[in-house]
Amino acid sequence: MLDGSGIDVPLGGVAQWTGQGNATECNFTGDYGIDRAFGGSRKNSLNNLLQEKYPLLGFEMSDVWGYCDGKEPVVAIPVTEPVPWTHRTVTAPAGVITVRGDHGHIKLDYQRDVAAGALPGPVYPKSLTAYQRTQDRWAAGRENMNRNHFGFDPATSGAQSGNVSEYLLRDKTTGRLQWVTPMTLRGSTSELFVAYSITPADEVHRGNLNPQSVYVLDDNDPRRINIDNLDADARSWLATNAGTVMSNGGKLVEFTPIDGDTWRGFVEFNGRVAYRVDISASHKSPVQLVKLDDTGATGPATVPGQAPAAANADCAKDLASLTPGPTGAMRQGLRRRTRQQAVSASAAIGPVRRAGPTGSPTVRADGLDHGDMVTIRKCQRSACTATVFVAMGAALAFTAAPALAAGTIQIAGAAADEVGVRYTCDAAAGVASIQVMAGDPNASSAAATGAQNNPTCDGAEHTGTVTLSAVAGQPQLAKGQSVQVRAALVDQSETVISGTAAVITLD
Asked: Nearest CA to 174 among 145, 212, 204, 203?
């Protein structure tokens, strides 16, 4: 996006590059003339106009992007809004505002819901995705987060030049855009990528978080990549096979994943990208050095004493190729197995709490829908060896208010052998059962679980009683015991539609 400034320089236009050939540009002139700019002031300020027309909506400039609709420039602004939650507000996605020019005047269009692929770029805010990712560390509870450094963080390697997270990649199979972040163990100084965070980027619905999945690679998976080693391998290859590239001032920057084994780096001269380098982390395929000529076209780089490299790998490799096969199962089998294990083995992780107005703990896990779910295949700490399946608290992860969910559920009371619930759901919500788990708030797994199949979903409030069955090897629940209870409306694939949690004393 080419921004304007001051009181009389409006938006200039949009420049875009597909990765091949020259960049193209479309301008806010003629029929598409405009009279505002993000960097403008007074009557030229687009920010002031947005605040006037949409006072409850906010955005980050890092989320703003543009594209050319033929010759017409269009700027897309993914926006957020505050939603009420207990005694405070939290932030939720709120759709997209598109900006067009109309014969010297600005034209705004606010879309609260954007279907996948409706716009050619990301409509789910990158900044919100990053915040969701930082809250995954709460999934194993406060103690594991604070004392055991549970969770994952992006790498901090200098090879990435600060561009370490939320890469926008396209799934070659589905065509969907995804925010993808390679991650290392939290609290570790290693640059070894052991997990990936993936969030849909091309779809947004007002008030609902997009699901964010964390895929953890097996310990022996060859795709556990150390970015510093990858950088060293690339530099060694360039020094041996294309010595003049680096000796003439070339700078190797920013590796991004192409598939599960191949990563792409860029060589720039004085800020201008001149080469692309595709390198296999496992050394199974040869390094490919591709030169961008002065017109922006690409072709195999010619290195003295060496045959020209093969054609460059396709941009936007299949995202599914980041997932292991049958032995690793990072996407297909993982998602299925995690859901199957969730209800039977992974409740009652320590509650996520904050001090309420009177100083008493307030559980932050009520009124959640499937967009607030975090699935983590395995923990990397001995304190958390069971699979984790936790709905993140609203105050932590920008969840929507309960009224925005497809159904609601509340815990009415609990005894050692049963849990009472109040719930509402519509027939179209797809609710197949009510799942309940209970256990010690500080335990790593549930002590008892239960389910009520085929609940009544007609839009009215109903009550139900779910009988609990003890989990083998876990201590029996007893009257007067303080336990954490989790209850959820789930569909046939055991995906959470709406959930709640509370720490209560058993009757």
From this structure: 203
The answer to whether 352 and 392 are in contact (CB under 8 A) is yes
pTM of the predicted model as reported, rounded to 2 decimal places: 0.60
Strand partners, 307: none
Nearest to 443 by CA among 416, 474, 464: 474
Comparing CA positions, the residue from 393, 383, 375 lying closest to residue 195 is 375
* pLDDT tens digits, 264-295: 888 888 878 888 899 998 888 889 988 875 54
Cα separation, 252 vs 269, in Å, equals 9
Our CA angle for 171, 174, 176, nearest 5°, is 60
Non-local CB neighbours of 338 within 8 Å, separated by 6+ positions? 375, 376, 377, 387, 389
How far is Cα 57 from Cα 76, in angstroms, rounded to an integer?
14
Q: What is the pLDDT of residues 403-462, one digit of tens each?
A: 333 578 889 899 999 999 999 988 888 899 999 999 887 776 789 999 999 899 988 889
Give the Cα separation of 364 and 35 in Å (integer).
45
Cβ–Cβ < 8 Å for 246, 252:
yes
Quick check: 301 and 309 in contact, CB under 8 A?
Answer: yes
